[in-house]
TrEMBL record:
Species per Swiss-Prot/TrEMBL record: Paracidovorax konjaci
InterPro entries according to UniProt: EryCIII-like_C (IPR010610), UDP_glucos_trans (IPR002213)
One of the record's GO molecular function terms: hexosyltransferase activity
Name of one Pfam family that matches: EryCIII-like_C
Protein name (record): Glycosyltransferase, MGT family
Keyword Secreted: no
Organism placement in taxonomy: Bacteria, Pseudomonadati, Pseudomonadota, Betaproteobacteria, Burkholderiales
All copies of domain Erythromycin biosynthesis protein CIII-like C-terminal, residue ranges: 311-426
Alphabetized UniProt keyword annotations: Transferase
Length: 445
C-alpha cells in the first residue's frame, strides 16, 4: 500500500473533493494524510485519514474572509477582484503552504505522492525544484479548466471559443492586454514570492503553472463538458465528475412524497460560498415561479433559512437548509444555480438542464460552458430578475433541445468513475525516492 499526502486550500469547494478522494484511498488500504484548514478537521478525520492543519498564518475560516480582507468588497466583480484574490488568497499563502508540506514530509510521512486542489500554490516551489527531491505531485481540477489555449478565450472573460480566424486573433490580443495590464502585478508578485523561496520565476503565465507543472492534472469532469483544445498537454486527463457520496441516515422531510406527484420539480441553489445574500438568486426564483401550481419549487440555502427567504416562499415552494443531492437531484427536472462546479456536474450526470446565474469566482466560465454545451441557459448575471428567471425556466421546459443536450452529456459522464481513475493514476506514477527527505530550507526556504 502507498502513502498519500492530500492538501487543499481551506474553502469548501476545494476541500470537499479532496476529502472524497481521501475517503476512497483509505478504503483501498492506503495511508492518507490530509493537510488543510482546522475548520475541516472533523470531516477529514471522518474519512479515516490522519490530519495536519495548515500553519497558523494561513489557517483561516473562509466565512470570515471579507472581514479579513475588507478591501476586496470594494472591488467590483471581475478582473480586479480576481487579481486581488490571486495575490492575497493564493500567492501570499504559498510559502507557509509549502513549509507545511515539507514539515509533514520531514516528520516521517514519506509520501509516495502529493495530491492538491487546483490552487494550492504551496506545491509550486516543489515543482520548480529538482524532481528527485520530491514526491510526485498531482493536481485535481475542481473547477472549469482555466488553462490558456489558442482555441479558447482568456479564462475569466466568459466568452465562448472563437468561431473565426479573426475572432481568434482578437481573443489573443485581448489576452495579451489583460495579462499585461490586469495581471502583470500578480505575475510579478508570484515570481517575487518564489524568488524569496530560492526558486526561479514561473516558466509562463502564473495561472497556467498549476496545470502545466504538476506531474499529472486530473480534471473532474468529462471532456465533453470542456472546450476542445488542440494544444492540451498530455499530463492533463479528464477523469469524470466527482459526485457527492451516497447520503447516510437520510430522514426525508414530511413533504418529500409530494415530489413524486407528477408536478415538474425546479431546484434553486446558491451553493456553499456565494450564498450570503439570498436576494441574488433564491428570492427572485421563488418570486418568478410563484402562482404556477404545475411546478414544485425547492430552494436550498446552504445554511439557516433567512427570514426573507421564508417570507418569499409561495405555496408551491419548499425551503430547506440542505438536502443531499444523491436523493434530491434524481427528482429534479430543472436546476437554477449560481454555477458551482460540483452542482453543475452532478446535475449534468443526471441529464438535468439548467439556468446558471454566476458572476463571482470562476462561475461565469462555468455558465458559459453550460450554454456552449447546449444543456442550459447562461443568465449572464449573478443577480437576475424574476422575469429573466421565469423566461429561462419556461424555455428549459418548453424547448426539448436543452434536455436532449443534457442527456447527451449524461451519456458522456456515464462511463466514468472519477475516484477509481484517480486511484489508478496515482498507482501509475513514478515511485517517490526512498531516502531521508531534504530539510525545509531545501524545498521551501
Amino acid at each position: 500500500m502507498a502513502r498519500y499526502l492530500l492538501a487543499a486550500t481551506a474553502l469548501p469547494g476545494h476541500v470537499l473533493p479532496v476529502l472524497a478522494v481521501a475517503r476512497y484511498l483509505v478504503g483501498l488500504g492506503h495511508e492518507v494524510r490530509v493537510h488543510t484548514g482546522s475548520l475541516f478537521r472533523a470531516r477529514a478525520e471522518a474519512t479515516g485519514a490522519s490530519f495536519t492543519p495548515l500553519l497558523p498564518g494561513i489557517d483561516h475560516d473562509y466565512r470570515e474572509l471579507d472581514q479579513r480582507f475588507p478591501q476586496r468588497l470594494r472591488l467590483p466583480p471581475g478582473p480586479a477582484r480576481i487579481a486581488f484574490g490571486l495575490r492575497h488568497f493564493f500567492a501570499d499563502a504559498m510559502a507557509l503552504q509549502c513549509e507545511g508540506l515539507q514539515r509533514i514530509l520531514d516528520g516521517g510521512f514519506d509520501a509516495d505522492a502529493i495530491v492538491t486542489d487546483t490552487m494550492f500554490c504551496g506545491s509550486l516551489p516543489l515543482l520548480l525544484g529538482e524532481r528527485s527531491a520530491r514526491p510526485a505531485i498531482v493536481a485535481l481540477g475542481i473547477s472549469a479548466l482555466a488553462l490558456s489555449s489558442t482555441d479558447t478565450a482568456m479564462f475569466g472573460s466568459g466568452l465562448p471559443p472563437p468561431a473565426t480566424a479573426l475572432q481568434r486573433q482578437q481573443y489573443q490580443a485581448l489576452q495579451a492586454t489583460v495579462r499585461r495590464t490586469v495581471f502583470g502585478d500578480v505575475q510579478r508578485h508570484f515570481d517575487h514570492v518564489l524568488a524569496q523561496l530560492g526558486r526561479p520565476a514561473l516558466p509562463g503565465f502564473f495561472a497556467d503553472a498549476m496545470f502545466t507543472l504538476p506531474d499529472l492534472y486530473l480534471q473532474l469532469t468529462a471532456q465533453a463538458f470542456e472546450y476542445p483544445r488542440s494544444d492540451l498537454p498530455a499530463t492533463v486527463r479528464f477523469v469524470g465528475p466527482l459526485l457527492a457520496p451516497p447520503s447516510r441516515d437520510f430522514e426525508p422531510p414530511p413533504w418529500w412524497h409530494t415530489l413524486d406527484d407528477g408536478r415538474t420539480v425546479v431546484l434553486v441553489t446558491q451553493g456553499t460560498l456565494a450564498n450570503e445574500n439570498p436576494r441574488h438568486l433564491i428570492v427572485p426564483t421563488l418570486q418568478a415561479l410563484a402562482g404556477m401550481p404545475h411546478l414544485h419549487v425547492i430552494a436550498t440555502t446552504g445554511g439557516p433559512v433567512p427570514p426573507e427567504v421564508s417570507a418569499a416562499a409561495p405555496a408551491n415552494a419548499r425551503v430547506v437548509d440542505f438536502l443531499p443531492y444523491d436523493r434530491l437531484l434524481p427528482k429534479v427536472h430543472v436546476l437554477v444555480t449560481n454555477g458551482g462546479y460540483g452542482s453543475v456536474n452532478h446535475a449534468l450526470s443526471l441529464g438535468i438542464p439548467m439556468a446558471v446565474a454566476g458572476s463571482t469566482e470562476e462561475k461565469p466560465e462555468i455558465a458559459a460552458r453550460v450554454a456552449w454545451s447546449g444543456a442550459g441557459i447562461n443568465l449572464k448575471t449573478g443577480q437576475p430578475g424574476s422575469r429573466a428567471i421565469a423566461e429561462a425556466v419556461h424555455q428549459l421546459l418548453g424547448n426539448p433541445s436543452y434536455r436532449q443536450r443534457a442527456r447527451a452529456l449524461q451519456e458522456a459522464f456515464a462511463g466514468s468513475d472519477a475516484l477509481a481513475a484517480i486511484a489508478q493514476a496515482l498507482h501509475g506514477l513514478q515511485p517517490a525516492p526512498r531516502h531521508s527527505p531534504p530539510t525545509v530550507p531545501a524545498l521551501c526556504a
